[in-house]
Write a structure and sequence with these properties.
By secondary structure, the protein is α/β, with parallel strands linked by helices. The protein has two domains: 201 residues, P-loop containing nucleotide triphosphate hydrolases (Rossmann fold), CATH 3.40.50; 58 residues. 30% of the residues lie in helices and 28% in strands. The chain is built from ten helices and 14 strands. The chain has a six-stranded mixed sheet, with helices on both faces. Strands 2-1-4-5 form a four-stranded antiparallel sheet, covered by helices on one side. Helix 4 runs antiparallel to helix 5. The longest helix has 18 residues. It is elongated. It starts with 9 loop residues before the first strand and ends in a 6-residue tail after the last helix. The relative contact order is 0.15.
Length: 287
């Protein structure tokens, strides 16, 4: 692949999307750099699927813009659209095709392609003569992943790609996805509720809450600077260089912690479990 390093694969600017009186996305902005693998995190209803719909050009924003490879996604020319790949939560349609015919049919839209990566083909483990509508949910999802990666896209978007996979297939796919990103230099954005997979795979974390991007942070920085500070009051922490991102009865979850900062006397420090931190950061806040 010929990936230009001076062009951002993704630039989202002030993205707002409404459905009637409901605001699904509220002024979301972020970028994805070449070679980054980014996790999109949020609870159900946080706006993840709406954001992905806007990223892929399926939904038209009410405000703001999405640029892929330097051009607005709504006007993306065919050659740039061919540099993207998308895996939906559930694959639908194409039921009358055989697996092999569908792979050939979708591949024809991309012109001349090299042979399918044998690693992906072995992982998918699909009979090319089998009718798509006869596949199990897990087999359909493996087929959707194979179709999305068949042309080796420069930007790959995955919306809950492993929800219907068994643990063995899920583990192998996450390893395969990491290997693919490293081998090709592709950028990846993935949404999943299996947090351990994302923490291990992704170099950046985007936390959505009620349609707003509340935290955008490299994974390594998140691990190093996110802490529970117990037995401290908001007033005592207000003058310190922390962002309070969660709360429990005994204290606060903060981002920006450093060993160099002198804490109020009596404050105790602990490292949060990633799942606990996710639950706090994405918790619905009272208006």
């Amino acid at each position: 692949m010929n990936i230009r390093k001076d062009v951002l694969p993704v630039q989202v600017t002030d993205l707002t999307k409404r459905f009637g009186s409901f605001t699904a996305l509220d002024g979301v902005s972020f970028t994805v750099k070449p070679g980054e693998t980014v996790a999109l995190l949020g609870r159900n209803g946080a706006g993840k699927s709406t954001l992905i719909g806007c990223l892929m050009g399926f939904l038209v924003p009410d405000q703001g813009s999405v640029d892929l490879f330097g051009q607005n996604v709504l006007d993306l020319p065919r050659d740039l659209r061919a540099r993207t790949g998308f895996v939906p939560q559930t694959m639908t349609g194409f039921g009358a095709f055989t697996v092999g015919k569908l792979i050939d049919y979708i591949g024809a839209f991309y012109g001349t392609l090299p042979p399918i990566d044998p690693t992906i083909l072995r992982w998918a483990d699909l009979d090319p003569k089998k009718i798509v509508k006869s596949l199990s949910g897990g087999q359909r999802q493996r087929l959707a992943i194979l179709l999305a990666m068949r042309h080796e896209p420069d930007f790959l978007v995955l919306d809950e790609p492993v929800a219907s996979l068994d643990p063995h297939a899920r583990r192998d796919f996450m390893n395969l996805l990491g290997d693919y990103a490293r081998r090709t230099g592709a950028s990846v954005l993935i949404s999943s509720h299996i947090l351990s997979d994302l923490e291990r795979l992704c170099s950046r974390l985007l936390f959505l809450r009620q349609g707003q991007l509340v935290l955008d942070v490299p994974t390594a920085v998140f691990r190093a600077t996110t802490r529970w500070l117990d037995h401290a009051t908001p007033h005592a922490l207000s003058d310190l260089p922390f962002q309070i991102i969660g709360q429990r009865e005994t204290g606060f979850l903060v981002h920006g912690w450093s060993e160099d900062v002198i804490l109020p006397e009596g404050t105790t420090i602990s490292v949060p479990d990633f799942e606990d931190a996710f639950l706090e950061i994405t918790a619905t806040r009272a208006a």
